[in-house]
Structure formats: structure tokens, C-alpha cells
Write a structure and sequence with these properties.
The chain has 342 residues and is mainly beta. It is built from no helices and 21 strands.
């Protein structure tokens, strides 16, 4: 069997913006803590005249957490033999609410709300106005709140509904009492994150071993003329290739195809994967670092942030007994936003 996969490290030159001199302001607000709370078993909280998102909720609960861990719902005295026995059970809508103060330094920045491990459907309100809804079980519920969250104090209200919105068997994984139980709540990270107006939102890597190249498709929000630069280095730290493209205001998708180079024999000069040397696929998201190695500057701006991202890019081909693999695998995506702090 012959499997070839290029191993490369990608140094991503970030989109940067100038900031004023002053006290540093965090780019993230942690929403974990004490929230106001109210059960809504009849589901009246969204009906005219009974809007709970316009009211100050009457109880409290700690988040991240669930109605079970908060002692909310119907106290259970039964001991089941065919499934987990919960201390408290609840099915329906539950409301969570708190204030948040947006700093003045977040003005004109992109603000995103991330709620991890929501179970199940969330409906979001900001200052009594609906800001969106989501129903994903396996990925964070993410919402752009740039327009809603201006500097000052705001009220965030989230309705979580753990009723199944679709017909499902009682054994369906993740949403029934016979698996992880059908809890109501938000049990993962809860954050507000501020990013520059010009920022990268997603990156997908499409390697091609036959052409010794990799195509990088970047989704971004570009509000000013910018440059995206990418440098590729091997495991030894030596540069394999580099390329930069200009981005105009309004651009949302940027595509770069980088030739990784070939040796005199016509084979790829990039270190390749073999069964005896398996290289795992990974894509750490860049984080601020004083000893970083790459940066992009907006015209007229000072370099204020540098960072490096690493990845193993897997393009593959093989012979029997495993059968052929696709020449271009599904894209490898980072686990979050790639952006620079102010």
C-alpha cells in the first residue's frame, strides 16, 4: 500500500487594524455565572401578553448548567432499572436571562455570541427584541450581535426548549431518557467575543498531492483594503512556499492556490506521509503570542498582533486492499475564528 500525504505548517498573516493607545480591554466576555431563570412548561412565554423576554425573570440558576443540576423541574423519587434516574425532570421551555455591559472600546467591532452544548432549541432576545434562534445539538449556537450590542448595558434572554421538534424514536441518541437523558440547559462555553471589523471567519484547506499544491479558501469580512499572506513551512521549520493576495472592501471569500514545489525527479519536495510515519491532522487556532512569526498590516496601520497557525494537510491516494481514497479530501477547518485582538 502506498499512501502519500503532504505535511505542512501554515503561518497565517492575520488581518490587523490600528488601535488607540490606552488600557487594554479583553476581547472576550465570559457569560458564565448566575443567571435569572424561569420555567415555562405551558410555553406561554412567547405569546402576546405573556412575553417572558420582556419581564424580569423571578428565579436564578448557575450557567453553564442544566435544570437538573440547578434543581429545577419536577423532583423525581423513582429509581429506574432501564435508564438513568434523574433527581429533577423537566420538559419544555426554560428561560435564562442576565445583563451584560459592553465596553466603549468595543464600538465598531464585530461582536459574536457563542453558546456551547445547548439542549436543544434556543431563541435569543436582546433588550426585548428577538435576535435569532438555533437548533444545533453538536456545534455551538453562534450569533452575530454587532448591531444589537452597542456600548452600554444590555439584557440578554435565552429561551431553551428541550422538546423534540421532529418525530424521533424513544432510543434516539442525545435527546431521550434512555441515552444521556433529555436535559434542558446550556452546559458549555458561553462567551461574547469582539473582533476587528476586518476579520477571518473560516478557512478550508484542499491539498492536491498530484499537482503538489494546496488551495486555501478563506471566508472573511473585509471592511477596508487588506492583504492576506500565507507562508508554508515544513516540519524542519524551513519555508516551503508563500503567497499573498490583496482583498478589497466588501470581499467575503478569498482563494489562494500555493504550489508546494517539486524536486529534480518531479516529486513533491514537501515531506510526505507513510504508514510508518503517520502524521495526524490538526488545525490549532492562532492565539496572541509575543514570539509569533507572522502578521498582515492594513494600509497605514501599525503591526499590533502576530500569530502562527499550524496544520497537517492530508491529501491521499492508495491502492488495494483499502481501495482508492479521494484525491481531495473534505476541507480541514479550524475550531473557531481566526482574528486579531484590538
Amino acid at each position: 500500500m502506498n499512501i502519500l500525504k503532504p505535511f505542512i505548517t501554515v503561518a497565517i498573516m492575520m488581518l490587523c487594524a490600528a488601535t488607540s493607545v490606552g488600557t487594554a480591554v479583553p476581547d472576550t466576555i465570559n457569560l458564565a455565572g448566575l443567571w435569572r431563570f424561569q420555567l415555562d412548561p405551558m410555553g406561554f412565554g412567547m405569546t402576546p401578553g405573556s412575553e417572558l423576554y420582556l419581564s424580569r425573570l423571578s428565579e436564578t440558576i448557575m450557567l453553564p448548567g442544566s435544570t437538573d443540576t440547578g434543581g429545577k423541574g419536577v423532583k423525581n423519587t423513582a429509581s429506574y432499572v432501564d435508564r438513568l434516574s434523574r433527581k429533577y425532570e423537566y420538559l419544555g421551555q426554560a428561560w435564562y436571562q442576565r445583563e451584560v455591559t459592553i465596553p466603549d472600546q468595543w464600538k465598531d467591532r464585530n461582536i459574536t455570541l457563542d453558546l456551547e452544548r445547548c439542549h436543544w432549541i434556543t431563541t435569543l432576545y436582546v433588550d426585548g427584541k428577538k435576535a435569532g434562534s438555533d437548533e444545533r445539538l453538536s456545534t455551538p449556537h453562534r450569533r452575530d450581535l454587532t448591531k444589537e450590542l452597542t456600548p452600554g448595558v444590555h439584557v440578554i434572554t435565552v429561551c431553551v426548549d428541550n422538546r423534540a421538534p421532529y418525530p424521533m424514536d424513544q432510543w434516539a441518541h442525545g435527546i431521550t431518557e434512555y441515552t444521556q437523558t433529555n436535559w434542558n440547559g446550556i452546559t458549555g462555553k458561553m462567551t461574547l467575543t469582539a473582533r476587528p471589523e476586518s476579520h477571518i471567519t473560516d478557512m478550508a484547506f484542499y491539498p492536491d498531492v498530484d499537482s503538489h499544491s494546496v488551495k486555501i479558501i478563506t471566508s472573511a469580512n473585509i471592511t477596508a483594503p487588506s492583504r492576506l499572506s500565507i507562508e508554508i513551512t515544513g516540519p524542519d521549520g524551513n519555508k516551503v512556499a508563500a503567497k499573498a493576495i490583496e482583498a478589497a472592501a466588501g470581499d467575503s471569500v478569498l482563494t489562494i492556490v500555493i504550489n508546494l514545489g517539486t524536486s529534480a525527479s518531479g516529486t513533491s519536495s514537501t515531506l510526505l506521509f507513510t504508514p510508518s510515519r503517520p502524521l495526524l491532522t490538526a488545525m490549532p487556532v492562532p492565539t496572541p503570542a509575543a514570539d509569533a512569526s507572522a502578521c498582515v498590516k492594513l494600509p497605514g496601520a501599525n503591526t499590533i498582533y502576530e500569530s502562527t497557525a499550524s496544520t497537517v494537510i492530508s491529501g491521499a491516494r492508495s491502492t488495494a486492499p483499502y481501495g482508492p481514497l479521494p484525491a481531495i479530501p473534505p476541507p480541514i477547518r479550524p475550531t473557531g475564528f481566526v482574528s486579531s485582538p484590538s
